[in-house]
Amino acid sequence: MDTQLHESISALADGELASGDIELAFATLATPDGQLALKAYYQIGAALRSQHCGAELSADFAGRLASRLAHESTAGQQSACDSATSLP
Fold this sequence. Notes:
By secondary structure, the protein is an all-alpha fold. It folds into 2 domains: 1-55; 57-88. The protein has helices spanning 3-14, 22-29, 32-49, 61-85.
């Protein structure tokens, strides 16, 4: 299943699917992969909305996550720049 179909199913689960995409989303849901994807998105949404998820984040979690994301972004930009400079 391609990314666009996953995004449509996710939007459907969140109640944010554009009316023009409903037919495609329901056709996708008629497949076993579509049904599994919808179930997964509902479970993810329920876990994110739950106040009782059973896990507490450490005090420095947000800072460590921000640092890792900044490093990944920088690393991705550097490799893209390296690739661009090596083009003929």
